[in-house]
Specification:
The complex is a heterodimer. By secondary structure, chain A is α+β, with helices and mostly antiparallel strands. Chain A has one domain: Alpha-Beta Plaits, CATH 3.30.70.20. Helix content of chain A is about 25%, strand content about 25%. Chain A has 2 helices and 4 strands, in the order E-H-E-E-H-E. Chain A is globular and about 30 Å long. Chain A starts with a strand and ends with a strand. Chain B is globular, with a radius of gyration of 21 Å. In chain B, about 45% of the residues are buried. In chain B, a hairpin with a 7-residue loop joins strand 13 (about 205-210) and strand 14 (about 215-220). Chain B folds into 3 domains: about 5-110 and about 235-310, FAD/NAD(P)-binding domain; about 110-230, FAD/NAD(P)-binding domain (3-Layer(bba) Sandwich), CATH 3.50.50; about 325-385, no CATH class. Chain B has helices spanning about 10-25, 50, 125-135, 150-160, 175-195, 295-310, 375-385; strands at about 5-10, 30-35, 70-75, 80, 85-90, 95, 100-105, 105-110, 120-125, 140-145, 165-170, 200, 205-210, 215-220, 225, 230, 235-240, 255-260, 270-275, 280, 285-290, 320-325, 330-335, 340-345, 350-355, 360-365. Chain B has 7 helices and 26 strands. Chain B starts with a strand and ends with a helix. By secondary structure, chain B is α/β, with parallel strands linked by helices. In chain B, strands 3-2-1-7-19 form a 5-stranded parallel sheet, with helices on one face. Classes of the chains: A alpha+beta, B alpha/beta. The interface of A and B includes residues 6, 7, 13, 49 and 56 of A. The structure holds flavin-adenine dinucleotide (FAD) and iron/sulfur cluster (SF4). The site of iron/sulfur cluster (SF4) has 16 residues of chain A, from helix 1 and strand 2. The site of iron/sulfur cluster has 16 residues of chain A, from helix 1 and strand 2.
Chain lengths: ~60, ~375
């Protein structure tokens, strides 16, 4: 799968990081970093949950495996 | 032949249009003209993280860069547009001609004549406004917030645990009730009160900013209050005044520039409009909609770039907005019509309110319930189509 984050929409509230910390990280500088843009298949349910939970709908799953 | 695209307004809509034009392969010249001197930035943090002091200023700027070549002229205002001659008049006395133009001038706050903007009367729209507010905050300061729409309600929430007193005023009985309906608005009102925000609702107010006093006073028919700073959020109007001399353009009731569903301004060929300045024809609601939110602005910028270059259109998206107050998330999707009948749906401790009009679900508001958003969107779309 492949994910894309719209960094202008992101408000760094770290909801995604709590759900999938191996993919999303909000650092002390206040910015979100995507640690893995193409997470392996086993992470798909978590990444989907993170995308659905994002308050600003900033995470988009652009292709599914 | 490569063309020149001039974009007026260098904020979310203008910047994202420029970026998207390059992404879909526009090879002409792009010039972005903006009145503010700051690089393009996000406004949502201005009433939230910036004044809560959880974001530094730098965190507010938009992140994606536009592929070159791309020119930006900041601190410059467009004063008139001639859609026949395809020329734009600028505040420095010069004019610029265009092959294509995108109006992205957004909106400006409605002001009250007795309360001119100053250090202690703030209409929150720009970074300058937000910094003026932020720099005066301390635990001794008394803040009055007039207008409990999105921005006023957010400001009250953001300041509630930082200053000595926050009083939120509105002539309606509840905060944000037109957008989220009375049920959630009542919950929000109680949330404000349990967080120490005093609410004075359902009454008219007058603001007196006399230079002889060291406070600004707000009077209701029965009470009088003194504040060090007053924040006013009684709505915005599309920043389209500068276009009003152009005889061929059409504006809606609030002054938004009207466009078709591709973003092309009605009765023009090479003029487009995005964001808070616009009113696009919505193919699902079958009417023009004027939306003043981040998500629609971004989607319109993406669509306009495609309309201009002929690239395939983006998928239709319902209007969507979010707000965070006292740590709680409220999202709205679709439209709440004036005659809306609301239905409250409890899902354990999550809440969903659907908005009904003419036997259709036209929209919904979700309270800490973003995982229900996709389902809600499909319910609305199924009902409307
Ligand atoms: C404090 C605040 C908080 C917000 N929070 C949220 C939120 O949580 N969620 C949400 O969905 N939306 C939110 N919004 C709304 C969102 O920011 C707007 O929908 C968005 O900024 C619209 O983008 P825009 O580019 O159309 O207009 P704007 O952002 O208003 O930008 C227009 C730009 O054009 C410039 N301009 C105007 N006239 C001229 C001219 N004649 N010549 C040259 N330049 C000109 C202006 O100076 C401005 O920089 C918020 C808005 C504010 C003010
Ligand atoms: S949940 Fe959304 S807004 Fe929050 S940090 Fe993640 S991507 Fe950003």
């Amino acid at each position: 799968m492949k994910i894309e984050v719209d960094f202008d929409k992101c408000q760094s509230n770290a909801v995604c990081m709590q759900i999938a910390p191996s993919v999303f990280e909000v650092r002390d500088d206040g910015y979100l970093y995507v640690l893995d843009e193409s997470p392996e298949d086993s992470l798909q349910p978590l990444v989907e949950q993170a995308a659905a939970s994002c308050p600003t709908q900033a995470i988009k799953i652009v292709s599914r495996s | 032949m490569p063309k020149r695209c001039v974009i007026i307004g260098a904020s979310l809509g203008g910047f994202r249009s420029a970026r998207e034009l390059r992404r879909v392969g526009f090879s002409g010249e792009i010039t972005l003209i903006g009145e503010e001197s700051f690089s393009p930035y996000q406004r949502p943090p201005l009433s939230k993280q910036l004044i809560k002091k959880t974001f530094p200023l730098e965190r507010c700027f938009l992140r994606g860069s536009v592929a070159e070549p791309f020119s930006q002229q900041l601190g410059l205002t467009a004063t008139a547009l001639d859609s026949h001659a395809k020329k734009i008049q600028l505040s420095d006395g010069k004019e610029i001609s265009y092959d294509l133009a995108i109006v992205a001038t957004g909106a400006k706050p409605v002001t009250i004549t007795t309360a001119a903007p100053s250090d202690r009367v703030i209409y929150l729209r720009t970074i300058d406004d937000a910094l003026r507010l932020r720099d005066q905050l301390s635990n001794e300061v008394r803040i009055g917030v007039v207008g409990a729409g999105f921005i006023g309600s957010e400001v009250a929430s953001s300041l509630s645990h930082q200053v000595s007193r926050v009083v939120l005023f509105d002539s309606d009985e509840q905060p944000m009730s037109k957008a989220i309906g009375p049920y959630l608005a009542q919950a929000l009102k109680e949330l404000h009160e349990s967080n120490g925000v005093e609410t004075i609702f359902g009454t008219s107010v007058s603001i007196v900013d006399s230079q002889n006093e060291d406070f600004v006073s707000i009077e209701t028919p029965s009470q009088q209050f003194a504040f060090d700073v007053v924040v006013i959020g009684i709505g915005v109007r599309p920043a389209t005044q500068w276009l009003k001399d152009s005889d061929s353009l059409h504006f809606d009731a609030v002054g938004a520039l009207m466009a078709d569903k591709t973003g092309r301004v009605l009765d023009t060929d090479d003029l487009y409009v995005v964001g808070d300045a616009s009113s696009w024809f919505d193919p699902i609601y079958q009417q023009h909609l004027h939306v003043e939110h981040f998500e629609s602005t971004v989607n319109q910028a993406m669509q306009v770039a495609r309309s201009i270059t002929g690239a395939p259109s983006i998928d239709y998206e319902l209007p969507f907005a979010w707000t965070e107050q006292h740590g709680q998330l409220i999202q709205t999707v679709g439209v709440r019509m004036e005659d809306s009948k609301d239905e409250v749906i409890h899902q354990k401790d999550h809440l969903l309110v659907t908005f009904h009009s003419s036997e259709k679900i036209t929209g919904a508001a979700l309270f800490n319930n973003s995982e229900a958003l996709e389902w809600t969107k499909s319910e609305i779309l199924a009902s409307l189509s």
